[in-house]
Design a protein that fits this description.
mainly alpha, Growth Hormone, Chain: A, 2 domains, 18 helices, transmembrane helix, transmembrane, MFS_Na/Anion_cotransporter, cell membrane, MFS_trans_sf
């Protein structure tokens, strides 16, 4: 008997490469928070200057969402993500040689440009590589690696700092980012037809048709249709992103100031919710895909997970506010973040479902909601803490936004796609043989040219 070794599918290799990108990029994003106290001490920075360094990332990050996604739609994700990864890799590497606050701000701004377009471009990369029934899992596992990167950054960066200083941490991470760029160039192709390793059977599984990628590049971006179909997804992403940014920026301060944890326990209890998010990201994508395979109803598979995820996060966030025991509050926070992250892969899958070949631009539109939340949420949260003297009010407002997001998610319709809009307009507006195309779809309808070819002319 012949022994057949099971061949690893090409799309799964590409998925693994993208997981590494999400992992590295998130470490490059949050490493400044870990090294911040050391940088401040060495350069003699004020709190305002350090805050300026922290915030320099957020604005280009939000700006590059749509730009990066649109570029990937027009020029292909391979070229665009290569350029973006070089930008953020060089910016991270150069941070290790920064000698002034101006240089730090400039490099963090460059990092925001590079990473701002990366996730929408990665979403566009999945358009022709992931079948519909695997898109939720693909988005879930990649964002799980992003959350894992956030969770391991403190011990990883501190270990390098202890061995060689904070500058070495940025230099090593920059080299790792550039090494990933080389790996990506060697493995990724914009479409299955450009890949020499893929088999015809796997191409059929994906559902790719030869020439789809080239045809998509030549088409004009339907901005109006994309906005009409994606604005509600963007709003839901804003509601999700509001609370996520609270976790990413205010969680350590909350646990220390409101719950009284000392520094020895702070690292552990800060990591617990983030690790719960790693599980939630993967589970949300898997559940959504399984639900679609079982029912064949894409809208149910996506919206149900959104409602359960945001609703579950809300259900655990409210008792956390009133919990008297600090450990109980941590477990409520972890459960709330677990359910919150269940929604993340579905939010990133919706641009693929709704926009198809325009998924890069649509993904940028969607994640603009997250970017705007990143600019507003930490500031408003801090202002409310300062004015009320308590964390309860800002957490309650965050819970209210989650409730609004749950209601809005119920109205997202994956059946109303941009490609369906284009097809309908084509049938209504294109003439075939002098007759509108929709008339050909109605056999009983007959058009005749009037015998008067020219209008009547008045004569004297």
């Amino acid at each position: 008997m012949e022994k057949h070794t099971r061949r690893v599918k090409t799309r799964h290799i590409i998925l693994a490469v993208m997981c590494v990108m999400y992992f590295i990029s998130y470490i490059d994003r949050v490493n400044i928070a870990v090294a911040g106290p050391l940088i401040r001490h060495e350069m003699g920075l004020t709190s305002a200057e350090l805050g300026l360094v922290f915030s320099a990332f957020a604005y280009p990050y939000a700006m590059m969402q749509i730009i990066g996604g649109w570029l990937s739609d027009k020029y292909g994700p391979k070229a665009v993500l290569t350029v973006l990864s070089i930008i953020w890799g060089v910016a991270t590497l150069a941070t290790g040689f920064a000698g002034s606050v101006a240089m730090l701000v400039a490099l963090r701004f460059a990092l925001g440009i590079g990473e701002g377009g990366a996730f929408p471009t990665a979403t566009r990369a999945f358009t022709y590589w992931m079948p519909v029934a695997e898109r939720g899992f693909a988005q879930g596992i990649t964002h799980s690696f992003a959350r894992l990167g956030g969770a391991v950054t403190p011990p990883l960066v501190l270990a390098v700092v202890a061995a060689g200083g904070w500058r070495d941490a940025f230099i090593l991470l920059g080299v790792a980012s550039l090494a990933w760029t080389v790996l990506y160039l060697c493995i990724f192709t914009n479409s299955p037809e450009q890949n020499k390793r893929i088999t015809p059977e796997e191409t059929a599984e994906i559902g790719y048709r030869v020439g789809d990628c080239d045809r998509a590049k030549r088409m004009a971006t339907p901005w109006r249709k994309l906005i009409r179909r994606m604005w509600l997804v963007t709003f839901v992403d804003f509601c999700y992103g509001w609370l996520l940014w609270v976790y990413l920026t205010w969680l350590p301060s909350y646990l220390k100031e409101s719950r009284g944890f000392d520094l020895k326990h702070l690292a552990l209890f800060t990591a617990l919710p983030l690790l719960a998010g790693v599980i939630g990201d993967t589970l949300g994508g898997v559940v959504s895909d399984k639900l679609y395979k079982a029912t064949g109803r894409l809208r149910l598979a996506r919206c149900a997970v959104l409602v359960v995820g945001m609703g579950g996060s809300l259900a655990f966030l409210l008792p956390m506010v009133s919990a008297t025991n600090p450990l109980t509050a941590v477990w409520f926070l972890s459960a709330s973040f677990f359910f919150l992250e269940i929604t993340n892969p579905v939010l990133w899958t919706l641009p693929l479902d709704i926009a198809g070949k325009y998924a890069g631009t649509a993904g940028g539109m969607m994640n603009t909601g997250f970017g705007v939340a990143g600019m507003v949420s930490p500031v408003v949260f801090g202002y409310l803490i300062q004015t009320t003297g308590s964390y309860n009010v800002p957490f309650t407002i965050s819970a209210g936004l989650l409730a609004v997001g749950v209601v809005a998610a119920c109205f997202i319709d994956t059946g109303k796609t941009v490609e369906a809009d284009e097809e309908r307009e084509r049938l209504e507006g294109v003439e075939i043989g002098g007759v509108p195309a929709f008339a050909h779809a109605a056999p009983g309808l007959r058009f005749e040219r009037h015998h008067l070819r020219r209008p009547l002319r008045w004569r004297k």
